[in-house]
Design a protein that fits this description.
Radius of gyration: 17 Å
Number of helices: 8
Largest sheet: 7 strands, mixed
Mean pLDDT: 79
Strand content: 15-25%
Helix content: 25-40%
Length: 247
């Protein structure tokens, strides 16, 4: 059976849960508690406009391999799979992945959902050569000492010429238990030495912020970045600062 020209099969599921013990991080507890209490206020019903433009716009790219970092309940993973992409979603919350697998099954699309840490992608058995990497609100919650490892991990799995779509709040919620957020200057500072070129940067449309629309965008200042991989990991070989080596 097919849907809109896309083969429909049972969702492919991969769960990796063999990470070494790690010291507690605030964001892990917050997200897991939110899913347990069903307070997933950030859940979106549709993909961001920048992703839709990349997939369906006048200059749409050819479907390939895609990686959805912090995929949550799978909205964007499922969207990409429905449009012919071979997509893998990564999340650290098992309950979120359960919801994502259920939604993928209901949508009749195939996707891989992997339980793991986005700063340790090479340990998850997901391979390399991803043409598209999507991050809607993942990097901007990571502590500063893990962001270098995140950039290195993404760079190692991205294909030459890959696109990275990155979304993050410049002004995070005041209730966040520690500093979060992501500024344009930091994106350039972290990614340029790792072989990435910033192609686009600017505020995201109101429609990309859910559920409160413009009010949330103004309060948190959601920004959208599009980067292109211009050098391989072997050409850059960025060193990870000692503080980034372990959680």
């Amino acid at each position: 059976m097919s849907r809109q020209g896309v083969a429909v099969t049972e969702p492919r599921v991969a769960i990796v849960d063999d990470e070494p013990p790690q010291r507690p991080r605030w964001y892990r507890g917050v997200y897991r508690a939110a899913y347990r209490l069903r307070l997933v206020v950030w859940r979106r019903s549709r993909p961001p406009t920048g992703l839709v433009a990349l997939v369906e716009g006048s200059e749409a790219v050819t479907p390939g391999r895609a990686l959805d970092l912090g995929c949550g309940t799978g909205t964007d993973t499922i969207y990409l799979a429905a449009h012919g992409w071979d997509v893998t979603g990564i999340d650290m919350v098992p309950r979120a992945l359960t919801m994502a697998r259920r939604s993928a099954s209901e949508a009749g699309v195939e996707a891989a959902f992997v339980h793991g840490d986005v700063t340790r992608l090479s340990a998850l058995g997901i391979g390399q050569g991803y043409d598209l990497v999507l991050d809607f609100g993942c990097l901007h919650t990571l502590p500063d000492d893990l962001r270098g490892r995140y950039v290195q991990a993404v760079s190692q799995v991205a294909a030459p010429g890959a696109t990275l779509l990155l979304y993050g709040f410049r002004r995070p919620p005041r209730a966040a238990p520690m500093t979060a957020g992501l500024a344009p200057e930091e994106v350039t500072r972290r990614f340029a030495p790792a072989g990435w070129e910033v192609v686009h940067v600017g505020p995201a449309p109101d429609a990309d912020v859910s559920p409160a629309g413009r009010r949330s965008r103004v309060s948190f200042d959601l920004w959208h970045y599009r980067l292109r991989r211009v050098r391989s990991a072997l050409e850059t070989s960025p060193a990870v600062p000692p503080s980034d080596q372990h959680e």
